[in-house]
Fold this protein.
Amino acid sequence: MPVLSAVLAAALVATPPCVEPPPDPANTYDAAHTYTKLVRDYPAIRIASDALPFGVSKTADLVYAHYGTRCLKLDLYRPQGSRLPVVVFVHGGGWKAGFRSEFVPMALRLAQHGYAAVTVSYRLSGEARYPAAVQDVQAAVRWVREHAGEYGLDPQRIALAGGSAGGQIASLAGVTGDGVKAIINIDGLSDFTSALALKHEDDPAKNPSSAGAWFGGRYAEQTALWREASPIRYVRPGMPPILFIGSGQPRFSAGREEMMAKMAEAGVASDKLVLPGTPHSFWLFDPWLQTTVEASVAFLHQNLP
């Protein structure tokens, strides 16, 4: 017993305390606030349900990374079964805001189709600039692989998905990291240096823009980083296939067509679904979420069999 006590004490000492930053009252990128902004123009929308359906379990607040005393957490949603394919979700919010709860409704619906789903928190730009968020997401993918046996997951069948800034992060993490077999980019940039992206993300009236805050400077000041963070720069044979799902707001998918063309030249599969007349953040709401889920399931069945 003394030996066991000593081992336990050593383990507790080895595991640093888990400290998270206090809630930021300025971080209002969530379904409720977005609904308030959109419902006047889209009166038929409904916030997609995050109620846990029958047959789906939730394991919450799993720590996947430590940076000193700072910890990052994820939530795991699982249907019944073993060696389940996994989709890791990256929330949006302009690299500076948002919560992992954003993708709970989509995670639950994918779980009903037989996929395990992981929603992750990552370091936002106010805490750590690029490439911290990308590194965090890649760490989450490694955590899934390393803990696959513990949770009945298949470490060889992992996809990344994200919306808005999360779509860009998911694409970049997937094409520059290891272990990702498919990517779903929902209304996220593919090229920060395209004319359309620069028009909005490098607008001098925004001081700083969301991207500028993430990179620590405007395009002229941090040109190398703006280029380096563009997923289009990493197109190559053997990279993961990508499904692009876009809103009716082209600015958020800047570089998509060019990246799809480069992927075709490299012999890599891609697909696209655009939902005309939809606002950015459409995946938070019904009726659009169901269409998003159906397209994602079809893509995953083909590329994450």
Strands lie at 46-47, 56-67, 70-79, 84-90, 116-120, 153-163, 182-186, 242-246, 270-274, 285-286. The chain has one domain: 33-303. The radius of gyration is 19 Å. The chain is about 35% helix and 20% strand.
